[in-house]
Amino acid sequence: MIKFTRLQRYAAILTTIILLLLSSPASARVKVEVLAIDPALAENIEIHIGSVSQESLDQRQTLDNQLKKAVEKGAFALGYYHASYSYRVMKKKLRITIDSGPRAQFIDPIVEVYGEAALLPEFIALQQTALTVDRQPLDHGRYDDFKQTLRTLTNEYGFYDAKFTKNELRIDRQNNTGQPVLILHSGERYHFGEVSFEGSSVEESILRFLIPFEKGGLVDRDTFLDLNRNLLDTEYFNEVNIQRQINKDTKTLDLLVLLDDSDKNRFEVGAGYSTDYGPRVRFGWNKSLFNSKGHSADFSTELSQPKQEMEANYRIPWDDPLRKFVNISSGYQLKDVEDSATDLFTSSVAYIRHYDSDWVLNYSLTGDIETYSQGGGPATTAQYILPGFGVSKSYLSEVRDPSRGHRFETYVRGSTESLGADVAFLKSYVSYRYLTPIFSRKTLLLLRGELGAIETDDILQVPVSRRFFAGGDNSIRGYNFESVSSTDSDGILTGGAYLNTFSIELSYLLFENWRVAAFADTGRAYNDSDEPFSTGVGGGIRWLSPIGQIRFDLAIPLSDEVDQNYMIHISMGPPL
To answer: What is the CA radius of gyration of the chain?
Structure first.
């Protein structure tokens, strides 16, 4: 006698069940095909039918009941109240033909709002939208969506006691019409109560500057968006979760803000190439939340054959971490370009103020220690302090292929003998860049201009790093970096007291991720108004890569005095 263990008996039973399931004709599914003039109707009915087994085809009464219910629900939802059907059974296939009949229409929609909500533009606009469905094909889903939109709007604007006193879609099958009737009483609008924060190490006194409303203010949807955006824009947090706590007794809304602090170190690596620079690499590090007081820090360096520089910044919030802060920075630059060699160490402290209109003001005090020489002459060391003031404003649309944008920047800086300078000077500078489509988004126009002036008794006593030079991929393409300026009697590039540069560029979207461009740049860094302009022209391509725009330009200088017949510039980043 053969004895089976318990495990063997379980295995035998399980195997038998699997074989029965696989051999069962009920497990075979039939392909369902629904034919109707309106594809949406056919799809909706097919969804309601669901799956049909081979066994169901042999039970016609059951099949008829299944199809009748599915057709009725699927057709009624789209306003087909007189739809009928027939079907044909084929081998492993069920074909259903729908005679939809006339489709019902919306007529005379009634949407009325009573209470404080009736005066808000958003509710008035939604009521006007409801009138546009008159004599349009009836769709129960469209009615339900509109009703839900109205309900959502009441929650967004703090009408938490709102209710529908009438909520009907009055169907008249004889006339094949449906009349939406929605009557809403909004009730009292709630006010903001307490806001509390949890999960963050950042001091609450700093977080409270990010709340865009006062306690007791009326609830509206923009305030939720503004609060969420303000918190995320600080880059202090990985995640922000705002929970609402409705107080029916006091008609107030309290907010609990759950925060997850960011402890990330962000890194950036970039590279470029130009004929004048050669290859260049860039590295950056940023830590957006350094401590509980909301301090942040960053470091960047860029290395190329003619110039090596690095800079570190430490930012301290001044009350509002988004709009007011102090920035402490130090940097070092070693540059050997054309006829000038510069060794510069600089430190500064700046108070920066952002305004809601996107204007940014910058008050700074900078200290420089600079050693420079020109034309192989003796080195000169200068130590001086520069007070400064700047204004800027910028906007850029889409990041990958922006079609609109502008960037304005101006500053005034200067020093005197009493602040350590060899000669008193006042340097002013203004630049503007403007990006706009022409005719369509495929063709873009980019304009750029710079103006600068240094008021001083002797420009040659002003440190080289503070004089004006032009030329290079961000100035006049076709000319070496900082190769355009006034010269002395020996032909040494000295830098200028004045600066003018202008540029025009047209680009066209030739393929999905590729633009072609043509440009012309002109300008000068000069001391005498009779000095000529230097002009370069050329063309290029722009690859709209997943990580940003990468530009390749070939520029030709229109000057017989330039040894280089052409310049190649490869760069990455937004056009502004």
So the answer is: 36
